[in-house]
Predict the structure.
Amino acid sequence: MAIRWRNTDRTYGVVAAGVHWLIAIAVVAMIALGSMMVDLPPGSADQFQLYQLHKSVGILVLLLTLARLVWRLVSPAPPMPDSCPTWQRRAAGVSHALLYILTLAVPLTGWAMISASVWGIPTVLFGVVPWPHLPLLPELPDKAAVEQAMKLVHAGLVWALAGLAVLHASAALGHHFHARDGVLLRMFGRTPAAAGMRPRAKGSP
Ligand code: HEM
Ligand code: HEM
């Protein structure tokens, strides 16, 4: 069977679905890694290695999200199935937009934090690719205050992203088990009809 790279009007293609799951797994792993690494002894070799890994995966998430948005312009997302009520379409549109914003804002605030850091520690992605600091921030007169503010914003946005991702995953499971409209299967490249799913009629319990 030929691989379908692009989205169709009924389902997601390999590129959009593959990047979606890669980012979802990376975000969950990064929340665990970030929460764990900040409690290690400051200045230890373990902490240094884990910070470098955290920065590397975080920048990868930033680049993948940008690539994903470009791909979305090339290959538009399938519209929600006809069986979905208008409020669900709106809720999906708003929450997907917020998920995109947060998956960009979380790594950007992390990058701003390390760029303003008084320690000025260089970042080498996966030990191979040197990654620059954001321009201007290393020259600020009160770098410590900016670094501190970015730490708070980074941590705050991470928890907003985690909360929204839980709601989003619950909605996806609700589509699958309650509405039975195949929306979850579309993120695995399947179409509701091919998966033998028949959506509940609008308004049925
Ligand atoms: C998907 C992207 C990311 C997620 C989900 C994430 C998540 C987290 C979490 C949960 C923490 C712990 C917060 C706390 O409890 O104080 C953290 C801390 C941190 N993150 Fe990220 N992060 C991401 C991307 C980045 C990026 C791209 C960078 C830098 C290039 C970065 C740099 C840091 C640093 C330096 C800390 C430690 C802050 C401290 O010492 O208090 N993060 N991150
Ligand atoms: C942190 C983790 C996650 C993030 C950041 C995320 C982000 C997103 C975004 C931005 C979209 C919109 C895609 C587009 O049309 O351009 C989307 C769609 C989708 N996500 Fe997630 N997601 C995450 C986790 C999950 C999980 C755990 C599930 C399942 C349990 C899931 C199921 C879906 C489904 C089914 C769609 C397609 C909805 C539709 O067809 O309209 N996602 N996700």
